Amino acid sequence: MKIISHITDMQRWSEARRLAGKTIAFVPTMGFLHEGHLSLVREGKKRGDVVIVSIFVNPMQFNQQADFATYPRSLEQDQLMLEEVGTDVLFYPNAPEIYPEGFQTAIEVDKVSQPLCGAFRPGHFRGVATVVAKLFNITKPHFALFGEKDFQQCVVIKRMVKDLNFDLEVLPMPTVREPDGLAMSSRNARLSPTERQTSLCLARALHRAQDLVAHGERQASSVLQAVQEIITGEGGVRIEYISLCHPETLEEVAEVSGPTLLALAVWVGDVRLIDNCVIR
Ligand code: PAF
Predict the structure, then answer these.
(1) What is the residue with the minimal CA distance to atom 3 of ligand 1?
(2) What is the predicted pLDDT for the residue at 64?
(3) Is 30 in the pocket of ligand 1 (CB under 6 A)?
(4) Is 37 a catalytic residue?
(5) Which atom of ligand 1 lies nearest, measured to the CA of 61?
(6) CATH 3.30.1300.10 domain locations along the chain
(7) Which mutation among 27, 109, 121, 128 tests ligand 1's pocket best, with the greatest number of atoms within 8 A of CB?
(8) pLDDT reading at 67 higher than 90
(9) Catalytic residue among 37, 124, 207, 215
(10) What is the mean pLDDT of the chain?
């Protein structure tokens, strides 16, 4: 696996692959990799001739400095994992490379950035859209793979790609879960053993909602109440939001009629966890 840290080197590498007729798959990450990321790389290898993975903990998308500072990092371990799944290039820039002095441009994807996580993390999706647009221009992929655990992020990126005519395909991939149902996330490492057990209420709540709808419930308020009861039944948990909304516009719905996104953000102790499912 080649490691590239400079933007111009990365652009040159990708341009050469493109001229040779190769297709490039790209997996952007913030490191501290887990099976969820690796499944994106494996899928990327199936779809493209070469796979680039980026690791960059993007300061622009953290609205709390402490969250950025404590974001887990593990470069050596990440490198080993990426090599094992056959990554061709790790793009690993530092912050001044991405945001040099004088940097002052940002991408704002309007409506779909506002609800859900956007309502609680001001500026988060502005930071995500801006860095992802830069990474697309740097790595020049044909496909970019994102995990659906960050469902709103997928919606925001898809909108940006469409609105700004990026010449690439965004491929959202299903959430990878632990055997007991917890969605894989770099943040899970911060859970104490008790919190780890408590956090299973998220997956339980999603199942309950799917079950209710499968048995004929259509009122969003009833489904949301059942979800809330399951989560608040656990000690040490605080709900940030629970929402039933349209999976493309992210506008809240009053009734479940057609595919509907159930999205949750929950604090378990000091750890913020998100999860979601599309109820069909
Ligand atoms: O999902 C992430 O890890 C980040 O938001 C991303 C897409 C790498 C942008 O920094």
Answers:
(1) 29
(2) 87
(3) yes
(4) yes
(5) 10
(6) 186-275
(7) 128
(8) no
(9) 37
(10) 97
Three-class DSSP category at 28: strand
pLDDT beyond 90 at 71: no
Span 236-240, mean pLDDT?
96
Nearest Cα residue to 38 out of 91, 78, 89: 78
DSSP 99-166: S-TT-------TGGGSSTHHHHSTTHHHHHHHHHHHHHHHH--SEEEEEGGGHHHHHHHHHHHHHTT-
Place of tokens 């496909």: 143
Is residue 145 within 6 Å of ligand 1 at its C-beta? no
Listed in order, the ranges of the chain carrying CATH 3.40.50.620 are 2-173
Q: Reply yes or no on domain 186-275 having CATH 3.90.226.10.
A: no
The mean pLDDT of 130-143, rounded to a whole number, is 99
Which tokens is 104 given? 């002052």
For atom 5 of ligand 1, which residue has the closest CA? 128
2-173 CATH fold: Rossmann fold (3.40.50)
- The rounded distance, in Å, linking the Cα atoms of 280 and 270 is 32
| Residue range 75-124, pLDDT digits in tens | 999 999 999 999 999 999 999 999 999 999 999 999 999 999 999 999 99
- Residue among 26, 61, 124, 152 whose CB has most ligand 1 atoms within 8 A, to mutate: 61
Question: What pLDDT does residue 124 have?
Answer: 97
